[in-house]
């Protein structure tokens, strides 16, 4: 290949083509645009200089870093609120200008109910509400309230509208007085004028029943306002024994004693044993279990890869005694069809009063013997089939289901896949979502039927809390999580949690 010499630096290797002499070019000069030009701005034109690219002071250097001391700290706010209320320790609920309730993280405060509900029961999302709708629209702030009717550690006075509380010779069989227009209950903020009271919500006037009438003082306050809880407390329990159907919803069922189902996962022996001990101590430990029981009943279910129903024997003609010869002992029925669960006996045969003469001995004996009855449980957990069975047992009256779960549901209805291995980071968010619509759909059905579900999780491996946790979230139950359950460490804690959840929800 011949060597190519480079072009000299002053020699253009690609010369421009010469113009064709036969083509006439327009070489007439263009006119300049000035004040006297007919195409210019015209006489009187004043040149306006262009502004600089940025207004204000010029850049003095790199932007300074954010001062951490100027950033609000949630930790400092919590600690400051605790220090503020630590010396006082008392919060009254009467409204005052500039008065702010303690934060939810400040627990060392005594609340005094003066006609408004305490923050234990209702807490607003803002310190105060806008006074007008126009101001609310301009602010654009979300307004709401967090309501906890079963707040912990607070005793609510119960008001029974009978002879013992009416201070009159006439007993009330229709419950407390209510507004004739909006049906609001009588409360401390209703005003009285002789034989009428004015509703604080709709401002309608309603006649005061004869049995509820009382003299007024010079300021229009009833003389018995301090003795009636409904006229001086913001939160009360209305006990309506003789009220009748007026206080039932349009589609509600008549009130009946509460029913509770305790379900134990026998596939995790240590956790199963701790759950039985916790329930025994909750029911019969210190005498608080039968506080306000009022005829409520419980049922016991065990499950692994199948569902085990314990049928209590009301009489020997219907059900036989067990192998130990105890006439009060329940009979075990195993339901192997976990894909289409059903109840083979009348529902009433599955419930028993744990504080009756025969029920106290029978329930305690069963709970003490349950760990020995399942020495070699089957692998697999049929949680979905169990919950479907419990729903069928409570669908006609509602109730509470307390489930002890020791492993991921792997068989039957609502079976969940094992934890994915080496899952990429972009799919990590899927671990916080339910992996199946079964549990959210079941929870919605339970909520419509008045069934609450509480979960106690004592797992050694991954259990998919995001999926099963939708049950207590949507039904108003509680979730207690004990990963890598240890009997000595977690047993007393779980017993305390069960006692709190059981006494709070099932004795109403």
TrEMBL record:
Residue segments, region Disordered: 1-102
UniProt feature, compositional bias: Pro residues: 1-14
Listed GO MF terms: SNARE binding; zinc ion binding
Domain of life from the UniProt record: Eukaryota
Transmembrane segments: none
GO BP, one annotated term: intracellular protein transport
Pfam families with a match to the protein in the record: Sec23_trunk, zf-Sec23_Sec24
Gene Ontology CC: one annotated term: endoplasmic reticulum exit site
Residue span, Zinc finger Sec23/Sec24-type domain: 176-212
Domain Sec23/Sec24 trunk stretches: 295-500
Record-stated family: Belongs to the SEC23/SEC24 family. SEC24 subfamily.
Protein name, UniProt field: VWA-like protein
């Amino acid at each position: 290949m011949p060597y190519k010499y480079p072009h000299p630096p002053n020699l253009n290797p690609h010369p421009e083509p010469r113009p064709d002499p036969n083509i006439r070019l327009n070489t007439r000069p263009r006119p300049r645009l000035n004040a006297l030009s007919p195409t210019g701005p015209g006489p009187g034109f004043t040149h306006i200089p262009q502004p600089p690219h940025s207004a204000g002071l010029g850049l003095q250097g790199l932007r300074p870093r954010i001062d951490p001391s100027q950033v609000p700290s949630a930790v400092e706010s919590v600690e400051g609120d605790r220090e503020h209320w630590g010396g006082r320790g008392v919060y009254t609920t009467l409204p005052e200008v500039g008065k702010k309730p303690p934060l939810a993280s400040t627990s060392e405060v005594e609340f005094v109910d003066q006609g408004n509900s305490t923050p234990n029961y209702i807490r607003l999302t803002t310190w105060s509400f806008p006074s007008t709708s126009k101001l609310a629209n301009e602010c654009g702030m979300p307004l709401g309230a967090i309501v906890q009717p079963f707040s912990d550690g607070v005793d609510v006075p119960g008001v029974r509208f009978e002879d013992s509380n009416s201070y009159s010779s006439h007993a009330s069989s229709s419950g407390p007085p209510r507004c004739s227009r909006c049906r609001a209950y009588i409360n401390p903020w209703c005003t009285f004028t002789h034989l009428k009271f004015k509703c604080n919500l709709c401002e309608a006037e309603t006649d005061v029943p004869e049995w509820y009438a009382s003299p007024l003082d010079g300021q229009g306050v009833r003389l018995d306002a301090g003795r009636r809880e409904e006229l001086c407390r913001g939160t009360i329990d209305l006990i309506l024994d003789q009220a009748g159907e007026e206080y039932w919803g349009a589609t509600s069922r008549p009130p009946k004693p509460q029913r509770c189902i305790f379900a134990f996962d026998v596939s995790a022996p240590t956790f199963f044993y701790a759950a039985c001990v916790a329930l025994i101590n909750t029911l019969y430990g210190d005498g608080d279990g039968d506080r306000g029981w009022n005829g409520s009943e419980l049922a016991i279910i065990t499950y692994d890869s199948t569902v085990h129903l314990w049928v209590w024997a009301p009489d020997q003609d219907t059900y036989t005694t067990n192998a130990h010869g105890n006439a009060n002992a329940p009979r075990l029925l195993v339901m192997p069809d976990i894909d289409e669960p059903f109840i083979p006996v009348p529902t009433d045969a599955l419930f028993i009063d744990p504080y009756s003469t025969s029920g106290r001995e029978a329930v305690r004996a069963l709970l003490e013997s349950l760990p020995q009855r399942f020495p070699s449980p089957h692998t697999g957990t049929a949680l979905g089939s169990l919950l479907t069975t419990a729903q069928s047992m409570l669908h006609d009256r509602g109730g509470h289901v307390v489930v002890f779960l020791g492993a991921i549901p792997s068989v039957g209805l609502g079976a969940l896949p094992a934890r994915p291995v080496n899952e990429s980071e972009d799919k990590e968010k899927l671990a916080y979502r339910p992996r199946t619509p079964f549990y959210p759909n079941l929870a919605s059905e339970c909520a419509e039927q008045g069934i609450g579900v509480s979960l106690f999780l004592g797992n050694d491996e991954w259990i998919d809390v995001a999926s099963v946790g939708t049950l207590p979230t949507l039904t108003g139950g509680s979730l207690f999580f004990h990963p890598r359950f240890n009997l000595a460490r977690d047993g007393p804690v779980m017993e305390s949690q069960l006692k709190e959840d059981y006494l709070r929800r099932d004795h109403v």
